[in-house]
Amino acid sequence: MSARTETAIDQPQQRRSWWRQHSELGVCVLLLATGVLVLVDALGIPTDFTQRGPVGPKAVPVLVGGALVLVAGLLALDVLRGGRGEAEAGEDVDLDAPTDWRTVLLLAGAFLLNAALIDTVGFPLSSALMFWGAAYALGSRNPVRDPLIAAGVSVLTWVAFNELLGVPLPGGPLMGVL
Predict the structure, then answer these.
(1) Please, which pLDDT band fits residue 174 given cuts at 50, 70 and 90?
(2) What parts of the sequence cross the membrane (predicted)?
(3) Is 6 contained in some domain?
């Protein structure tokens, strides 16, 4: 084989190797895109001339969008200078184990069921079903404890948001009881 042929064959391999070594740039692109989206949306927020004080509705979104763009730039600079994220080093993590799609699908199903039922049956019931489904998906099989804890957490969450924080969540049929 000639030197010219070897060079032509090695170039795609080198290009692929460079992208593998700098794969964190994908996270940078995602952060940058999110930051730009937040900034564009924030700058489109209408401000009312009757606004009180120097801080308006644009302040926090512009700050968050700017921080996302800044972090994306700093992370890209670090990656291009040779910085690498640490590999997973948990004691009980088996990096060679395949993804447990059953668990992922059960968790997604519990979340989607919550989203579908929240307006119909209210936050406490739909969230209790979601919490119970998540516990089941993650391996808990106690038929008495799991639904009781799920119901307690969902009702406490509803009370905290609805009563303490003033964020109205749909109560559903339990509205008169709670």
Answers:
(1) confident
(2) 25-47, 59-80, 101-117
(3) no
Report yes or no on 19 lying in a domain.
yes
* Residue 45 banded pLDDT, cuts 50, 70, 90: confident
Q: Whole-number mean pLDDT of the chain?
A: 86
Residue 86 has pLDDT above 70, yes or no: yes
Q: Give domain status of residue 86, yes or no.
A: no
- Residue reference for tokens 């401000």: 47
* Residue 121 maps to a domain: yes
* Cβ neighbours of 31 (radius 10 Å): 20
